[in-house]
Amino acid sequence: MRNYEWDRYRSTPGNTDYGEAAAAYLGTGPGARLLGYRKTDATPTGLFHDSDPHGRALITATSAHVFRATVSACCCWSDPGTAPPKLVCPPRGSAARVWTEQLPPSGITHVYAFDHGEVHLWLIDTDPQHRAGQWHTLDTTETHQTGTVWLIPEARHYGPLAHTTAHLALSDLARLLADNLAVQTRIPSSPLARCNITVETTPGIAWLYVTVRGLDPVGLRADLAREVISDMVHAHNWHNDIDTYERRIFLRIEFEPFDTGPV
Questions:
Q1: Helix (H) or strand (E) segment spanning residue 201
Q2: 93: left (phi over 0), alpha (psi -120 to 50) or beta
Q3: Helices marked H in the chain
Q4: Is 71:36 a contact under the CB 8 Å cutoff?
Q5: How far is the C-alpha of 66 from the C-alpha of 68, rounded, in Å?
Q6: Segment-wise mean pLDDT, segments of 10 residues, the chain, 263 residues
């Protein structure tokens, strides 16, 4: 399931919102080794759809040896005199965000780095509506003839069940959570015992609205009930430390002191 924020990370053929120039590194941070520079067609889909197989091999490399070889094959300095001399690879984690203002005016908007067994992408997004300056993992798929490359933020933290329920639409996920919460209402020791719970959604918006009837919103029991519901949703959720609004699910919990019955 992809919420309304997900598409900002999708890179499609012909999309130059991110710019087209890139540098390639072995490792990340100040100690990374600069391997090469590519001036054009260096977006993930530019490489993925390149008729030269080296482009696809670069973004799917699984070893440093393969990454170095493919960088040598498809990246080169356009002119030794114009190669950015002091370009330093951004660090991992949230510290990478501030590098959107530190890169030299070399036209580079992409940084590819092989680190910890896979290729990572850091980019400056030229669209002011987007959150730039974070590392991404590259998820490629060839389920369609054209292929697709998804940019998945490394700053995103996943709950333990997020991957196993990723195929569910929000309405299906709401039904799953409603069923799980209904089990809680039948457990005498649960803070949701004997409550009536509904889980609703709004089409096109990644919000879950949980209404708990039969429980006073003030007091320890209500606090424990919020914790149970939040933990249950978090297990299927993700959130992004850099972009507060980049989540799979947003949650709102409301309490009604007296059970008014099914709506």
A1: strand 196-202
A2: left
A3: 44-48, 53-59, 64-74, 170-185, 220-234
A4: yes
A5: 6
A6: 42 54 88 85 78 81 92 66 65 76 65 92 66 78 61 86 90 95 96 96 89 93 96 93 82 82 52
Angle of CA points 18, 24, 27, to nearest 5°: 120
- Spatial strand order of the sheet with 21-26 comes to 10-11, 148-153, 135-141, 118-123, 108-115, 21-26, 33-38
Beta bridge partners of 140: 149
Which domains can be identified in the chain, with CATH numbers? 6-154 (no CATH), 170-256 (3.30.300)
The whole-angstrom separation of Cα 233 and Cα 214 is: 21
The two structure tokens encoding residue 128:
């002011």
Partnered with residue 174 across adjacent β-strands are none
Structure token digits, residue 19:
């710019």
Residue 50's Cβ-side half-sphere holds a number of Cα atoms within 13 Å equal to 20
Contacts of 94 (CB under 8 A, 6+ apart): 134, 155, 241, 242
